[in-house]
Amino acid sequence: MTTTRVRQSGTNDDEGDGGLVQRTLEGDHRAFASLVHRYERLVFHIAGGFLRDRRDVDEIAQDAFMRAFEALPRFRQEAPFGPWISQITTRLCYDRLRARQRQQQDVAWDELSPAEQNAARGLATGGRADDSAANRDLAERALGSLPAKDRQVLVSVEVLGYSAAEAAKMLGCSALAVRIRLSRARRAMRVAAERLLDGMAQKE
After folding, report:
1. What pLDDT score was predicted for residue 10?
2. Same domain, 141 and 198
3. What value does the mean pLDDT of the chain take?
4. Over the stretch 94-105, which tens digit does the pLDDT of each residue have?
5. CA 164, 167, 172, 174: dihedral to nearest 10 degrees?
6. Are residues 87 and 163 in the same domain?
7. Residue 35, Cβ neighbours under 10 Å: how many?
């Protein structure tokens, strides 16, 4: 599966992230605006990978930067800002998805982002991610069979293109746990797809 990693958007401000954070803490809100400009493309890309609705993506992006601003006093200025804002954004996305899942046990296919749909089709059919009605139904049902944590890892690695170590930081677990969940999720998708195909064949 081909994934695209998006780095922070360019900016004319050559000042480092740590300097911008320090100036923000000193009361210069224009410095934080520079951080927003520098990382907003990354934040929107992450949110767009999880959520289909543009309004949800916009809300998550705004909330992510607001939470980052409020938490700046606890931010280690020698640390890179990008992974930190990525972690905040990812957790907000998971919170939004979990809230929806509490209202609806099975995730609706139309609620998945195009990237998630393509990932599900590819995994459910051994890499053949076409858009036929049968393939869509197969992927939808196979994806719905995954536990929430396994699906989160699958999206983080297969869709967004993060490494196991990067996904572990965002999900608050070890890289080993990510690899185990990823292997389990891939296997579960294939097994679920095979069972569904067998069931369809027996009905014919």
Report:
1. 41
2. yes
3. 75
4. 888 766 554 444
5. 0
6. no
7. 25
pLDDT in tens, 45-100: 888 877 777 888 999 999 999 999 999 998 887 788 998 999 899 889 888 876 65
CA distance 94 to 89: 9
183 and 100 in contact (C-beta within 8 Å)? Answer: no
Cα(45)–Cα(42) distance, integer angstroms: 5
- Residue 137's pLDDT is what? 67
Contacts 24+ apart (CB under 8 A), 48-51: 48/113, 48/115, 49/113, 49/115, 49/116, 49/155, 49/159, 49/160, 50/90, 50/93, 50/94, 50/96, 50/97, 50/113, 50/116, 50/155, 51/93, 51/96, 51/97, 51/113
Same domain, yes or no, for 48 and 122? no
Residue with tokens 């999206």: 155
Q: DSSP letters of 156-171? A: IIIIS---HHHHHHHH
Predicted model pTM: 0.50
Residue 167: CATH number of its domain: 1.10.10.10
Tell me, what amino acid is at 152? Q
